[in-house]
């Protein structure tokens, strides 16, 4: 990666470590290499080395075999309940590390950077403007343990930056679901069935943006999109910082 090469070329090992910690604690440093950058940001060099998503299936976001096709074969054969996935980057190094720092070590400045990458992607690709932004909810006890909901935090930054109304809290997680890690797609579907509910007024054809930090198999997004559709939502777009491939 470009930022690793840059840091290794010009700094001794101890300085790399110090810079990395400083970058997470202090504003004004790139969250990846620790070099000077605007507050809560990533420097231009690191940004250009990120695994940006491009040219994937417009519906699921995954790499597509046939160039020029709008959607992959799987999405054409069995369309998911959402309309399109808008992802800032692949869930590869170093984006995976950023997501983990944000989510599990509560580095809120990193969340702001991820939200900024997503916002830039939405703007550059002229994503349709939603009527409502709904973060994927955590169950109350998990949110209490983690201290925050990473999807809500990212959605708040994006809404503020794009001049959208604040994210809704009406999409709720009714029951805690065991970790999805290690489950295959059909096990994930069963695990999530009936886990979400819509506690707001009818959505009457409104366009909804569903926000999450990472999209893996898409089972969480699909379950949330189905709940939103049952509440009357029109198109549901999925906005994620990172897409696993
Ligand atoms: Zn950097
Ligand atoms: Zn697809």
- Order of strands across the main sheet: 1-6-5-2
What series of H and E elements makes up the topology?
Answer: HHHHEHHEHHEHEEHE
Write out the distinct hetero groups bound to the structure.
zinc ion
Assembly context of the chains: single chain
CATH topology of the largest domain: Rossmann fold
Please give the radius of gyration in angstroms.
18 Å
The number of distinct β-strands equals 6
Structural class: alpha/beta
- Estimated helix fraction: 40-55%
* Mean pLDDT across every amino acid position: 88
For the record, the count of structural domains works out to 2
Shape: globular
Secondary structure tally, helices: 10
Tell me what the CATH architecture of the largest domain is: 3-Layer(aba) Sandwich
User: How much of the residues is beta strand, in percent?
Assistant: 5-15%
Report the sheet with the most strands, covering strand number, pairing sense and barrel closure: 4 strands, parallel
CATH class designation of the largest domain: Alpha Beta
Q: Termini separation (Å)?
A: 19 Å
Residue stretches low in confidence (pLDDT < 50, at least 5 long) are: 1-11
Task: Describe what this molecule looks like in 3D.
This protein has 245 residues and is α/β, with parallel strands linked by helices. The protein has two domains: 49 residues, no CATH class; 191 residues, Rossmann fold (3-Layer(aba) Sandwich), CATH 3.40.50. Helix 10 links the parallel strand 5 and strand 6. The longest helix has 17 residues. The radius of gyration is 18 Å and the shape is globular. It starts with a helix and ends with a strand. The relative contact order is 0.15. The structure holds zinc ion (2 copies). One zinc ion binds next to helix 4.
